[in-house]
Amino acid sequence: MSVQKQVLVAEDSSVIQNITKKVLQFQNYNITAVKNGLQVLEIMEKNDFDIILMDINMPGMDGMECARQIRKLSDEKKSSVPIVAITGNAKNYTLEDFREAGINEYLQKPLNFDALVETVKRLTQ
Predict the structure, then answer these.
(1) Which runs of consecutive H residues, i.e. helices, occur in 27-105?
(2) pTM higher than 0.85 for the full model?
(3) First to last CA, the chain
(4) Looking at the keywords, is Phosphoprotein present (predicted)?
(5) How far apart are CA 107 and CA 113, in angstroms?
């Protein structure tokens, strides 16, 4: 029996957060959900995750800034965790912007849950 992968979902919309949780729990992932970038950094101090799904537009600290902060962490495992941006306005950013912030991939909202599951599987193998 393989160990359950730990997924951190950072999303300020409870609706999207809940659907994402259900879809991934159904795929046997263990989900932790937070509402903003500050909570991401807080929870990462105490926990390790296999992947982070991060909304770009969040209150307090947005996903781009949060990704930059994660990449600066001194703990190598934590600072290299795959980050997938989830955004409704990807056209405001170039792939270069995402890369520069340390984001591995991005998924467009409204979320395609097949693509979400496929991306999470691929990045957590």
Answers:
(1) 37-46, 63-71, 76-79, 95-101
(2) yes
(3) 15
(4) yes
(5) 10
Work out the widest C-alpha separation in the chain, in whole angstroms. 42
Question: Which residues make Cβ contacts (< 8 Å) with residue 5, sequence separation at least 6?
Answer: 29, 30, 50, 51, 120, 124
Measured CA to CA, the distance from residue 20 to residue 26 in angstroms comes to 10
Per-residue pLDDT for 108 more than 80? yes
Q: Where do we find the tokens 């193998």?
A: 125
Residues contacting residue 16 through CB under 8 Å, at least 6 positions apart: 55, 86, 109, 111
Between CA 12 and CA 39 the distance in angstroms is 11
Label the pairing between strands 105-108 and 51-55.
Answer: unpaired
Superfamily in which the 6-123 domain is placed by CATH:
Response regulator (3.40.50.2300)
